[in-house]
Amino acid sequence: MTKLAVQDLHLSYSDNAILKGVSMALQQGEVVSLLGPSGSGKTTLLRAVAGLEVPHRGTILIEDKPVFDGSKKFEVAAEKRNLGLVFQSYALWPHKTVFDNVAYGLKLRSVPSSEIKQRVDSALQNLGLGHLGDRLPHQLSGGQQQRVAIARALVYNPPVILMDEPLSNLDAKLREEARAWLRELILKMQLSALVVTHDQNEAMAMSDRILLLNNGVIEQQGTPQEMYGRPQTLFAADFMGSNNRIEGTVSEVRNGATLLAGEGWTLWGESRGAAKASGSKATAMIRLERVRVAEGPGENRVRLPLVTSMYLGDKWEYLFHLGEMRLRAYGREALSTGEQWLEIPKNDLWVF
Amino acid sequence: MRASLPRVSVIGLASLAVFLPLGLIFYQSMLNAPFFMPSKTIGAGAFEFIFADSDFWDSFKNSLVIAGGMVIIAVPLGGILAFLMVRTDLPGRQWIEPLLLIPVFVSPMVLAFGYVVSAGPVGFYSVSAKQILGGVPWNVYSLTSIAIIAGLTHVPHVYLYSSSALKSLGSDVEEAARMTGSSPFQVARDVSLPMVTPSLLFSGVLVFFLGFEIFGLPLVLGDPEGHLVLATYLYKLTNKLGTPSYHLMAAVAVCIVGVTFPLVMLQRHLLKNAGKYVTVKGKAGRQRPLPLGQWRWVAAAIVALWLFLTIIVPLSGIALRAFVSQWGEGIKLSEVLTLDHFRTVFEQPTLVRGIVNTVLIGVVGGALAVACYTAVGLTTHRRNDGWARFVDYLVLVPRAVPGLLAGLAFLWVFLFFPPLAPLRGTIFSVWLAYTVVWLAYGMRLVSSSLLQVGPELEEAARSVGATRGQVNRHVTLPLIRFGLLASWLLVFMIFEREYSTGVYLLGPGTEVIGSLLVSLWSTGGADMVAALSLINVVLVAAGLTIALRFGVNLHD
Amino acid sequence: MRHLQKAMLGALLTLAVFAPILAHAQAPAGYPANYADTIAAAKKEGKVVIYSTTDTASANPLIKDFQSLYPGISVEYNDMNSTELYNRFISERAAGGGSADVLWSSSMDLQIKLVNDGNALAYASPELPHVPNWASWKNEAFGTTYEPIAIVFNKRLLSGDEIPQSHADMIRVFTQKTEKVKGKVTTYDIEKSGVGFMLITQDSKQNPAFWDFVKALGAAGPRFQSSSGTMMERISSGENVLGFNIFSSYALLRAKKDPGIGVVYPKDYTLVMSRVMFASKSAKNPNAAKLWIDYILSKRGQTIIANQAELGSIRADVEGDQTLAGLTKTLGATLKPIPVGPELLSFLDQTKRLEFLKHWQQAIKGSK
Predict the structure, then answer these.
(1) Does domain C2-146+274-337 sit in CATH 3.40.190.10?
(2) Other residues' Cβ atoms within 10 Å of the Cβ of residue A274
(3) Class assignment of domain C147-272+344-366?
(4) Cβ pair B463:A109 closer than 8 A
(5) Contact assessment for residue B373 and residue B398, using Cβ atoms and an 8 Å cutoff
């Protein structure tokens, strides 16, 4: 069943248009990430679904029941939407214990107190917080607070759980562990989740589908593999992964391949996006990991001087630079400065 | 926009409480006789009279000067004091705080009288100055002095609002400024105080209003040289034509209220353009006091100077007057000390009842008033719609009406509106009058506490299913309980010294300390007035210190 | 101490006079036979509501005594200033709500106006023969005290011929002793104070050289105040050295505690004012009101007024310095009581009043 459906949503703050026509759907058991740079509207979209922001056009349906319809000026208040929302800052009530924080939603639903105790205890257990029920929020670590916030959002079994940057407040080490754990929790509890994040690695690790927002519209949506492997626009390509950008002029177009030319070099690449006319300017992208240091000259290879090598622990990153061409690549060992041949596989070079 | 029933009913009740007395005043200003006289006719006669009266324009000009002076003095000083007390490591902060609030709970007339005894032409500081310097270099009766004293005594009002706002700032913004090389005062001027602009703006507007309304100070200090302000002009109007001329008084009040609207509009405009100021996150940054270093002594000097001019000078005057049988030119103090005045005060038959009534109305009435202010404050909390705008104007208007006329207006409300008539003569009528007149003051105290609650905490409650009412009850109010306590304390102090607003509604059995003071004053018992005031100050200061010791923070 | 002895003496005298009557708890001697009915009706009413400008502390002895004379009738005594009294009464009467039974105010002209506007109950008090003719009007308004208006000066700073003995003498002091008094003469601001205005208009009637007096006053740089309390405070401290048109009752009270205050009764004429009392036509307790009025005008009540409330007795048969009897002995014909009657209304006419004020301002300023 479609747990959440958003259709052509428009939202503005005074005269600033934030969402300019966004549509999406979330199915049962799916985790969908809203990804994008700051200002793209992803948090606004999440808050609009929650009912904390009011769009002026479009519809929102939860489990096929409308909660917002711009054409009829119909709006269900946030407190009636029965969604779970985990805030970026956790927003735990400082005057309530952990137990009371989690129990509050059940109390509002007039659940009898014996049942409240049982459900809250079980929620806390599930999240590894069993022994912390009597603590106050300020006595918990960041990670523990995050889990309380999640428990609070889940305890009344909402159809969809909304998360606003759930991992951004954790330190780097914790973040990696947490994203695995969060994915596991979501799968175990068969939740449908809409997650806002600015970190594409996080999005790819946790989600079944990614919605990439750019300036209030959806640039592209798809599975992580689609988003990473087959970006349809320059923006989408650039946002995911670590990339090299090569500017040049289109010299020839043939069968889905484009020949890009620059000062003293030409490279074949895969045509992406709109068709390019010969002679027009184009930008090409290739992922860092696809560039290979080669032994010598060959097809689609360029010769560039090495500026520096950076040790990353599991690999080296090389920086090559000449004129307007700047390329970074990975490799297994240190390289001495001097000129190297770099292979740019033509299927991995996307020309937009 | 939808407005829920509780919200609309609170706003409706508040509007009724404000518009009934105000409406009567407006109506009265358009008549030529008391509105309850059958002989009245409608006309602009009242306005014609006052506009043709040079006294009106003089007093208007003087009021403007004083109100302006008050803003110029009280806002920067209040802001700086708040900064020093809240954000820095100023030495002695704990005991300075209750002292700072003394001008709030001492009757302005008594304070003015203290200045006369200390610094008047034959005041004891002046007499010493004459001996040392050969002359008295100051004149408490000049318009400038009145404006300065008024400004200094209103510093606590600005202090209260700015200090709550400053409490919610994270230290990081100030530390960033220190890193670029700013001294503590530059930090205050360029970072901290600008970030609490809404509070400063609001208290500036409030102080400007209070400037139009002040009565006791200009009565005592303005009479000798004949400086009139609008409130003492109103007082004059009660006698100038022989019988009190309500229509003229009402016309003056209408003019003052007319000044309200542009001011509130200006304030709203300035706040809108200033964009978002301090927003409190769910996790407030840790607060570390800014070390003053060598600036400590400058800061201490500023505080000490203000304390001296605003508290020590008048209070020492009052204290002295309470203990001497006569004072002034040619008197050796040691020869005239006496405890007689205190004895006489304690013999006053209504003293004990007056004290009990005052405490009751302050404690119980104050708590009820804070509850009402909270209800009104919640109607504008986190909203910026038409209703919120309306409430903004609504709350400031009653304070624009001078106490002299407000008291009369409330008498009329309780006399001429059948549903309310049976309540006249009960303490409820007095309470209602006080609560309405101080609406702006009290509601803003509560609002600034409300603003300290992170919006996310309320949104989180809504996301788990709490209605707005439940959010208020379960999340917002518990989080501001210290702010509410502090508001209660302050409203207590205000109610405790109030008099003119309830004067027509009081009776035997409901008299309060304020009425006792005025009664003693009118028979020339300035010595007993001083003694009673001193007792009053000591009582309230003691109560305040105890409350602060017991952990009631004036801000949490 | 002296105070207490005087009170005891007064009480003994009273008892001695009234003992036979008290024994019967009935109408006092000389009262109509049906007075007992009035008393009975008043007791049924149970209380009397008074609005008064006399402060509670001074009125207390009267209230206590009245209550001991008529147990069962409680006195609800509201003290307020004369403007508040006027405002409150007319508003309450217009609304038909409960208001005062008796009004007692030192603002003579406002009281006469209220009576003239038909607010008073006509009552021929049995005590009327004992009060002077000028002290009552139409059996509706009654003068109840005898308070001369005096000149007050600072004893430390003025001596000998610097102290004016009369109104004419004040002109001399203003013009010849200018260094001593310049900027230090005080009196009521007649625009702000109704009582002050009334006294000055009475001066204009009694003083043949009134406008010369005003011009001389203006030249001396007067400091106008709005209440006698502030005036005396400033005279005592030496900020001002001389004041006129001050109630001697307040001044003498003050002078008891304060050796700096000196009081002079002007020898050319001394105005005497009297606090006016009337019962409201719409009084809820009219009989109790009558009892109160009779009590205040009775010898018993007047003795207390003279000796304990220290307001001066208006009856010729009450002994003491501060009584009509005592003062007539010392000052005789120079005493000019302000009559309780409709002449007080003339300056309540707006045009006439403003005219006078304009003339006054010109005279005060013109001399500068």
Answers:
(1) yes
(2) 8
(3) alpha beta
(4) no
(5) no
Domain boundaries, chain A: 2-232, 242-351
Contacts of A80 in chain B (CB under 8 A): 465
Chain C adjacent subunits, 3+ CB pairs under 8 A: B
Gap from B395 CA to chain A (nearest CA, Å)? 27
pLDDT value of position B268: 73
Residues A13-59 pLDDT 10s: 888 899 999 999 999 999 999 999 988 899 999 999 998 888 999 99
Sorted by where each starts, the structural domains of chain B and their CATH numbers stand as 5-10+20-549 (1.10.3720.10)
Task: Retrieve residue B384's tokens.
Answer: 């910026």
Bridge partners of residue A220, in order along the sequence: A212
Residue whose C-alpha is closest to residue A250's, from A224, A272, A278: A278
Q: Give the residue ranges of DSSP H helices in A54-167.
A: 98-108, 113-126, 142-154
d(CA B332, CA B189): 47
A and B interact (at least 3 Cβ pairs within 8 A): yes
* CATH 3.40.190.10 domain residues, chain C: 2-146+274-337, 147-272+344-366
Q: Which residues of chain C have pLDDT under 70?
A: 1-27, 367-368
CATH H-level, domain A2-232: superfamily = P-loop containing nucleotide triphosphate hydrolases (3.40.50.300)
Separation CA C67–CA C70 (nearest Å)? 5
Share of chain B above pLDDT 90, in %: 15
Positive or negative, the CA dihedral B78, B84, B90, B94 is positive
Q: How confident is the model at residue B93 (pLDDT cuts 50, 70, 90)?
A: confident
Please enumerate in sequence order all residues whose Cβ is within 8 A of that of B327, keeping only pairs 6 or more positions apart, or say none.
B117, B122, B124, B320, B321, B333, B336, C236, C237
Distance CA B209, CA B398 (A): 10
Q: What is the pTM of this model?
A: 0.78
Interface of chain B toward chain A, CB-CB under 8 angstroms: 281-283, 454, 456-457, 459-468, 470-471, 474-475, 478-479
Query: Residue B193 contacts by C-beta under 8 Å, 6 or more apart in sequence?
Result: B79, B80, B83, B162, B200
Go through B308-320 and write b for each residue having 16 or more CB atoms within 10 A of its CB, e for each that does not. Answer: ebbbbbbbbbbbb
Residue A208, SS3 per DSSP: coil
Q: How far is Cα C113 from Cα A227, in angstroms, rounded to an integer? A: 95
Interface test with A, best of B4, B272, B463 (most A CBs within 10 A): B463
- Are the CB atoms for B136 and B126 separated by under 8 Å? yes
CA B322/CA B113 separation, integer angstroms? 12
Chain C residues with beta carbon closer than 8 angstroms to that of B503:
80, 84
Interface check for C258 against chain B (CB to CB < 8 A): the answer is yes
- Alpha-carbon distance of B162 to B181, in angstroms, equals 25
Confidence class for position B226, pLDDT limits 50, 70, 90: confident
Please list every residue in chain A whose beta carbon sits closer than 8 Å to the beta carbon of residue B470: 79, 108
pLDDT in tens, C142-158: 999 999 999 999 998 99
- Our CA-based measurement puts residue C307 at a distance from the nearest CA of chain B, in whole angstroms, of 17
